[in-house]
């Protein structure tokens, strides 16, 4: 399975298997007519199509990799009832194959599991978990993060002269996190924290989420309560997660779990 993922990465990113990364014939790496004839469209149109299809807002990372692109296009894959329903945004440079970057958004209920890949796990500044995978040379790099109602897959070429690395992908994820959090209600920060910590504690996926409300206990203590539903294989159950924090400084104090 890992081999097929890496081969697919080579093909989808248009990465050369040789060592010559110089200017190529545009037709070697980019067929504009073919892209649009096969369903590609302007990014704005693809975003609107997927927002309509899935009934939820799409937020793209404000930050792009610090490299030059010559083209960008999108596509909303809306196959009825299929697990491959997702939004894809592709940035590329027709003359520099290593300047290749792709964003894929999957609804959380249809997210890609990718358990066969060896990820490096880390956290963004708001405690959102990100997972990074780096394949062999001339394949791909992948950073996975969940924000809002979407799973984001940020993919870049892993060529010999690639300038998009883990740091750049992480910075892009940070910009996404800030953009989404700024649109979310005040409790969203603690909701994301509750989901992350519950997944870590139980080693299960959170498949449903309900905000239960805030309780202000004193000038120095407040609590946000959430109801989460966890599932892994045939096992599933609910849990109440209560996050305590300082209402003025927003400093985390404690977290409690109560299984339903």
Structure in words:
The protein starts with a helix and ends with a strand. It has helices at 2-13, 26-29, 32-37, 43-54, 166-183, 188-202; strands spanning 71-77, 86-92, 100-107, 120-123, 129-134, 139-147, 150-158, 205-218, 221-232, 235-245, 252-259. Residues 1-29 have low confidence and may be disordered. By secondary structure, the chain is α+β, with helices and mostly antiparallel strands. Strand 9 and strand 10 form a beta hairpin. The protein contains six helices and eleven strands. The chain has two domains: 2-183, no CATH class; 188-259, Nuclear Transport Factor 2, Chain: A (Roll), CATH 3.10.450.390. Helices cover 26% and strands 37% of the residues.
Give a topology summary.
Elements: H1 2-13, H2 26-29, H3 32-37, H4 43-54, E1 71-77, E2 86-92, E3 100-107, E4 120-123, E5 129-134, E6 139-147, E7 150-158, H5 166-183, H6 188-202, E8 205-218, E9 221-232, E10 235-245, E11 252-259
Antiparallel strand pairs: 1-2, 2-3, 3-7, 4-5, 5-6, 6-7, 8-9, 9-10, 10-11
List descriptors.
Nuclear Transport Factor 2, Chain: A, 11 strands, 260 residues, 26% helix, alpha+beta, 6 helices
């Amino acid at each position: 399975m890992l081999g097929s993922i890496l081969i697919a990465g080579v093909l989808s990113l248009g990465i050369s298997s040789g060592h010559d990364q110089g200017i190529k014939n545009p037709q070697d790496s980019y067929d504009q007519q073919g892209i649009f004839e096969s369903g590609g469209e302007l990014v704005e149109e693809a975003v609107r199509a997927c927002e309509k299809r899935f009934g939820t807002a799409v937020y793209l990372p404000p930050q792009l990799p610090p490299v030059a692109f010559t083209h960008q296009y999108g596509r909303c894959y809306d196959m009825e009832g299929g697990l491959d329903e997702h939004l894809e945004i592709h940035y590329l440079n027709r003359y520099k194959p290593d300047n290749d970057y792709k964003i894929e958004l999957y609804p959380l209920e249809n997210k890609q599991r990718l358990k066969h890949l060896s990820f490096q796990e880390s956290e963004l500044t708001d405690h959102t978990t990100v997972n990074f995978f780096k394949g062999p040379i001339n394949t791909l790099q992948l950073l996975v993060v969940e924000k809002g109602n979407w799973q984001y897959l940020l993919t870049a070429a892993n060529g010999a002269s690639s300038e998009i690395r883990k740091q750049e992908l992480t910075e892009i994820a940070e910009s996404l996190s800030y953009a989404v959090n700024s649109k979310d209600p005040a409790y969203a920060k603690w909701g994301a924290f509750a989901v992350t910590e519950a997944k870590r504690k139980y080693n299960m996926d959170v498949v449903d989420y309900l905000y239960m409300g805030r309780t202000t206990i004193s000038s120095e203590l407040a609590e946000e309560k959430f109801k989460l539903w966890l599932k892994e294989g045939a096992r599933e159950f609910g849990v109440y997660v209560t996050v305590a924090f300082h209402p003025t400084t927003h400093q985390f104090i404690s977290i409690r779990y109560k299984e339903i």
